[in-house]
Amino acid sequence: MLVKISLKKYRNAFFCIFLISGINAVIFSGCAGNNGNADAYGNFEAEEVVIGSESTGTILRFDVEEGDKIEKGRLAVLIDTIMPQLELEQLIASKESAKARLVQLQKSIDVQEERLSVLKKEADRITSMHKEKAVSTQKFDEVTGQYRIAMKELEQMRSQKPALKAELSAVETKIKAAREKLSRCKIVAPRSGIVLQKYAERGEFTGVGKPLLKMAETNELILRAYISGSQLDDVRIGQEVTVKFDKSKDDEHQRRGVVSWVASSAEFTPKIIQTKEERVDLVYAIKVRVPNPDGRIKIGMPGEVLFQSKTH
Q1: Is the pTM above the cut of 0.85?
Q2: What CA–CA distance (Å, rounded) separates 54 from 164?
Q3: How many domains does the chain have?
Q4: 56-102 pLDDT per residue, tens
Q5: 304 burial level (CB within 10 Å; 0-12, 13-18, 19+)
Q6: Residue 69, domain member (yes or no)
């Protein structure tokens, strides 16, 4: 009888130990899960660029659609080039005219210099003869007068040359401006990325400064997350962190990112953000640059930040 009672006591004791061990396992498991929580939460965003029209006219081509991935330098929009092209051709014609007048002026100067050379010889000869009383004063005055007039004419011709050169230079400057204006009819992608939104369509009339499309670089996205004031000491610009984002319902991707910005002032907690503690009144925004070469991360997707490795 004593043996049976002892065994029953041992069985009850063993059951209690087993129950306590199970409870502790659950508790420790829950603690380990908490250690795996993220330090900050946020959403991915991209550096967006709004491309506007730099010319006025009708849109002849709009070769991109929303969602298209385009490379840097690709032609996206072509605006009517007729008027800029005609202006350029007119200026080129003006340049050729100025060049022709400059050439003609130089030829006239050459002829005048030759004529002046002949007149100088004649004037020198008459002057010598006049000293010897071999020619009349009237003849002397006539020849030397012609020489002085020819010199004045040559000076006048030479004075026209700088003015023509200045006119030619001004026309060349206008040609450069016209070519630049013509080139601005062609809107090319300033960077590689995804077209997020179109603000116009082919056939519409556009003006200088009017937005045409919005695009974003997606090879690297920014996770804008929020931290509490107590976490500021754990974050610094240039710090490498672990970034997680959803892969499936029960799994997630993990990548390395770099903190590129920390807000200098606090703001009220956005409604969509939850930190690992209870919601706080004021938080600080941070930006983490995350590589996205495969395009798995999408704009607006939620993400988590771990400042240092967690031990489970």
Answers
A1: no
A2: 33
A3: 2
A4: 999 999 999 999 999 999 999 999 999 999 999 999 999 999 999 99
A5: buried
A6: yes
